[in-house]
Amino acid sequence: RAGRARALARNLEGELNALGGGDAAGHVSTGPPSPDQVVSRKHTRRHIEDALEKLPDDYKLAVTLADIEGLSYKEIAVIMECPIGTVMSRIYRGRKRLHKMLYAHAVDSGFVDPENEQARTKRGSRARAPISLDAYRKRGTA
What we know:
Layout: H1 2-17, H2 35-54, H3 57-68, H4 73-80, H5 84-108, H6 114-123, H7 133-138
Helix pairs in contact: 1-3, 2-5, 3-5, 4-5
């Protein structure tokens, strides 16, 4: 398990290098990045790496396997040697902690408009609600 986590941490650098293929509004640039964009990407990358390092190991591994490696809950459960429900809760809690740690940077960098975010949360809508264990099992992939 520890070897897999180290390998994933090494792969994280490659994934983070790809971060910022566009500007904060999501527009993909066609030319080389400006010096300001390079500095901004490095700054964002450092914030993400620092936030990931602050997560408990189980949360860090679960989030990395799900969001960077793109593995299914079932695959993560096998790797982490725990039930799917545990994987789901670790991913959810890890993402929540990352959100708390990275939100201010996202606002400062223009990735998030706090006014739109407040309006969205007041309506009670969520961009992507986590799937329940029962719903996951009903899909037939468990």
